[in-house]
Amino acid sequence: MSSSDTPQDPLRIANALADAAAAHSLRLFRTPLEVVAKADESPVTQADRAAEAAMREILGRERPADGIYGEEHGLERVDAADVWVLDPIDGTRSFITGSPLWGTLIALVRGGRVELGMVDMPVLGERWVGQLGLGAQRNGQAVRVSACSAVAAARIFTTSPDIFGATDWKAFDRLSRRCAMRRFGGDCYSYAQLAGGTIDLVVEAGLQPYDYLGPAGLIEAAGGVITDWEGRALDLGSDGRVVAAATPALHREALAILNA
Questions:
Q1: Distance (Å, rounded) from C-alpha 51 to C-alpha 16?
Q2: Please, what is the average pLDDT of the chain?
Q3: CA-to-CA dists, residue 161 to 112, 179, 205, 238, 246, angstroms
Q4: Quick one: which of 21, 75, 83, 90 has its CA closest to 52?
Q5: What CA–CA distance (Å, rounded) separates 95 from 254?
Q6: What does each C-alpha distance from 215 to 57, 138, 152, 192 come to in angstroms?
Q7: What pLDDT band is residue 2 in, cutting at 50, 70 and 90?
Q8: Contact call for residues 86 and 17 (beta carbons, < 8 A)
Q9: β pairing state of 82-90 and 103-110
């Protein structure tokens, strides 16, 4: 953002990016797709690539000096003051298998801090956005995390047991079995649920910056806490292990159990 920007300017651009991504992804959802395995063995489709290309076209026109870090087309100007971090389809496996719980993730990182985070759920018609100092909203309505402060009362989510290595799985299993409820699945939607107060904890591993920075901006704006497993703030260089919690007390207890 330039010094002349208003808080509405990044939100306007983020909305345009999400609209462009949805126009491509929804058109191909639940249709025959060419699925390609990337180097990390995660599936990618023509929908991912076309959606990110459309997002980059908008940024090239509207914000040519800004950096871009996208899942499908890599890095551009990541040393810029403002960097847009894009995941056109988070939950590609959900997309491929016809599940509606995939989304578009957008973060605006300024000076190493997430100024705006968006989780857009095109099939569900839900757009979750958080802006630093301005709070969080779902489709224009204010949302906030729950008041849960103890692991024993917490509802915890993670996408899949398969995202953890053996040691990290033991830590997650130890934590989650002490919670009131644990659930699997949801991909990026779990972070939106946490921001909306219907769940209390999300713990994951093996993530990339485009997986966690959009949700981080949303959760922090909604009043929650999100860090790595050591309690450090998330940034472009984090190790991909994430703990998101509704309250600082819940976050501290979760970290203590994970690292016991």
A1: 12
A2: 93
A3: 30, 16, 10, 21, 22
A4: 21
A5: 31
A6: 23, 13, 24, 7
A7: very low
A8: yes
A9: antiparallel
55/28 Cα distance (integer angstroms): 17
Q: What values do phi and psi take at 89, rounded to 5?
A: -135, 100
CA distance 225 to 208: 18
Number of Cβ atoms within 10 Å of the Cβ of 55: 29
Question: In whole angstroms, what is the distance from residue 260 CA to residue 171 CA?
Answer: 8
Q: How far apart are CA 69 and CA 61, in angstroms?
A: 16
- Terminus-to-terminus CA distance in the chain, angstroms? 42
Q: How far apart are CA 180 and CA 22, in angstroms?
A: 35
Residue 46 pLDDT more than 60? yes
Nearest residue to 99 via CA among 130, 80, 124, 72:
124
How far does CA 253 lie from the centroid of its chain?
23
Residue pointed to by tokens 């921001």: 195
Tell me, what amino acid is at 200? D
SS3 231: coil
- Rounded Cα–Cα distance for residues 191 and 156 (Å): 11
Q: Is the pLDDT of residue 25 over 60?
A: yes
Tokens coding 168: 């990290």
